[in-house]
Amino acid sequence: MKILVVDDDPGLRKSLTMILKDAKYDVTTASSGEDGLRIAAAGEPDVILTDVRMPGMGGLEFLEAYRDGGGEALVLVMTAYGSMDLAVEAMTKGAYDYLPKPFGADEVILTVKKAEERERLRREVGRLRAEVRADRKFGDIIARAPAMVRALEVATKVARHPSPVLISGASGTGKELVARLIHRESDRAEMPFVAVNCGAIPETLLESEFFGYVKGAFTDAEKAKEGLFEAADRGTLFLDEVGELPQALQVKLLRALQEGEIRRVGDTGSSSVDVRVVAATNRNLTEAVAEGEFREDLYYRLSVVPIHLPPLKDRPEEIPDLTHYFIARHSERLGIGMEGIDPEAMEVLLKHVWPGNIRELENLLEQAMVLSEGPTIKVEDLPERLRHPDPNTVAVGGELGDDLSVKRHTASIERRLIQLALERTGGNRTHAAELLELSPRALRYKIRDYELD
Question: Of 369, 363, 382, which is closest to residue 338 (Cα–Cα)?
Answer without folding.
Answer: 369
